[in-house]
């Protein structure tokens, strides 16, 4: 029997059972909120409409958000004073350039164009 991974994941989320997707061998489980956030990013990446899928720079930004279980804490030490929480609040949205050179124009998981 074949199982479509995306459909299975959508069922787990729809049935409010996202913890079922976690590898039981994980030494540290993410918080429910962080897990749901990561799953939403994953589901956006497999949207049937390619135009709605986020660019990689946007994906990186969403996964590096403070609440994310996948955030690499070493990144904060790489650029002193440039952690995400230091972003100006209420100011204009700045473009963040990733190592791949992608200017996604997003901040806090929102594209500069409002999508």
From TrEMBL:
Record-level GO cellular component terms: membrane
Molecular function in Gene Ontology: ATP binding; protein serine/threonine kinase activity
Presence of keyword Transmembrane: yes
Designated name of the protein: non-specific serine/threonine protein kinase
Magnesium in keyword set: no
Top enzyme class: transferase
Localization: Membrane
EC number(s) given by UniProt: 2.7.11.1
Species, as recorded: Ilex paraguariensis
Keyword field: ATP-binding, Kinase, Membrane, Nucleotide-binding, Phosphoprotein, Transferase, Transmembrane, Transmembrane helix
Major place of residence: membrane
Region described as Disordered: spans on this chain: 56-115
Membrane topology reported for the UniProt record: Single-pass membrane protein
Basic and acidic residues composition-biased segments: 61-99
